[in-house]
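Journal club prep — side note

Before the paper discussion, L.F. wants everyone to see what a predicted structure for a comparable chain looks like in token form. Sequence:
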Amino acid sequence: MPHDPTKSSQRPLTDAAGRSVRGSNSSDEIAAFVARARAMAPGAAGVRGRLVFALDATMSRQPTWDMACALQADMFREAAAIGSLDIRLVYYRGLSECRASGWISSSDELARLMGRIDCRGGHTQIGRVLSDTRREAVASGVRAVVFVGDAMEESVDDLCAKAGELGMLKVPVFIFQEGYDPVAEQAFREIARLTGGAWCRFDPGAVAQLRELLRAAAAYAAGGRDALLRLARGGGGAALLLGQMK
């Protein structure tokens, strides 16, 4: 299975400017994506929402990884009340290891894959997550990205350039930060702003907080802004996200 997260990704990377190394024209790719997006509005009949679920799997993240494993089914349940949802798991860990699954439509399958992954020491690779999302958005459409992490050890300017491309593609990034790292917070807030997404903090080990945020992101991916508006009437995570989105 070429995109199994337990196997190395074989997909081409983009260059430093975010362009595909396959040589295709970036402007043409974006125009093609926009045309598809108009025919695939969130919540439209027969259209499945697509959410990239990206996680920092470096050593410090093991408790949160375990918590995310337990909560991932909530995203599918929330989406099922609105429409449907496919999730692509992306994670990084260790020495330059960044992997992605295919599109998963079953919470049991996602739980099985996540249960096979352990956290390993290493530096953040958020740029590779953003590049992978851009490729997937252009190729087949992505409604939103969820990223859960606690640190940022890369060039902020490089990350912002990649985030800006996702903003052009109308792919919001919802960043859920664990802890209080000010360097990470500054970068995460800017990535969220550039993509039209949102940044929220949750306390270490706060299961209820993370659950509400993941449910809200899944609602957006499955049903768009209208679904998030309906969920926000009860406050909680949906209201936090909606208050920041452009």
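L.F.'s comment for the group: Confidence is low (pLDDT under 50) at residues 1-24, 33-45. Keep this in mind when we get to the figures.
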